[in-house]
Amino acid sequence: MDKKEKFIKAIKENESLIFKITSVYTNNTDDKEDLVQEIIYQLWKSFDSFNQQSSLSTWMYRVALNVAIYQLKIAKRRVFTVEIDEHILNYQDEDNSAIEQKWELFRQQIESLNLLDKAIVMLYLDNKSYDEIAEIIGITVSNVGTKLQRIKEKLRKQTINNQSHGT
Fold first, then answer.
1. What is the torsion angle, in degrees rounded to the nearest 10, for the CA atoms of residue 39, residue 144, residue 124 and residue 38?
2. What is the distance between the alpha carbons of residues 19 and 14, in angstroms, rounded to a whole number?
3. Per-residue model confidence as pLDDT tens digits over 63-82
4. Both 145 and 104 in a single domain?
5. Three-state secondary structure call for residue 165
6. Which helix (H) or strand (E) is 31 found in, with range?
7. Rounded distance, CA 73 to CA 53, Å?
8. What is the pLDDT of residues 116-162, one digit of tens each?
9. Of 2, 37, 121, 139, whose CB neighbour count within 10 A is largest?
10. Do the domain assignments include residue 86?
11. Is the residue at 85 inside a domain?
């Protein structure tokens, strides 16, 4: 199997991790598609440097997270303007189910986290072990545990504050 075939196989086997990362670090479809392309490009560019000291998925997570965080930092430097369309101003919000409301609240809480904490939560929710998270993020296993405890506490406090304020 040549390099191209190996790469395509690796992308197909791990495409869910790319889409998880792009979903966490983007807010719209166009940005998500751009980020997917950039991640795949960077994975291809550095595919020869994969030295198999870790699993392929761990290496791909690391590259994809680095690309996503870098792209987000670049995007924050740009100033965006959006035209307000008249029908948006008159839009009536439809009733969401309780599950959708909880998911939206959770998404908003995750959005309030810093870039590193978002990555840790995403990996944790993806059932990665502390060892895998540490290897992907580049911190110690004990630091993963400490950070997760602090993140959980922060999210718990946000939930309590939101409930006490009726949101």
1. -10
2. 9
3. 999 999 888 877 766 554 44
4. yes
5. coil
6. helix 29-45
7. 29
8. 898 898 888 888 899 999 998 889 999 999 999 999 888 888 777 77
9. 121
10. no
11. no
Could you tell me the residue range of the domain that residue 154 belongs to? 95-167
Kindly state whether residues 18 and 76 are assigned to the same domain. Answer: yes
Structure tokens given for 38 = 């950039």
Here the tokens at position 164 are: 């006490």
Same domain, 110 and 72: no
3-state per-residue secondary structure call for 62-103: HHHHHHHHHHHHHHHHCCCCCCCCHHHHCCCCCCCCHHHHHH
Q: Integer distance in angstroms from the first to the last C-alpha of the chain? A: 55
- Of 46, 80, 114, the one marking the end of a domain is 80
In the numeric block, the tokens 């550095």 are attached to 46
User: Could you tell me the two tokens for 111?
Assistant: 């959005």
Which structure tokens are listed for 157?
A: 């406090």
Instruction: Give me the amino acid identity at 51.
Output: N
Angle between helices 98-111 and 141-164 (to 10 degrees): 120
Residues 6+ apart with CB under 8 A from 136: 58, 61, 62, 65, 119, 123, 128
3-class SS of residue 26: coil
Q: What's the number of domains the chain is made of?
A: 2
Whether residue 42 is found in the same domain as residue 117: no
- CATH code, domain with 164: 1.10.10.10
Residue 164 identity:
S
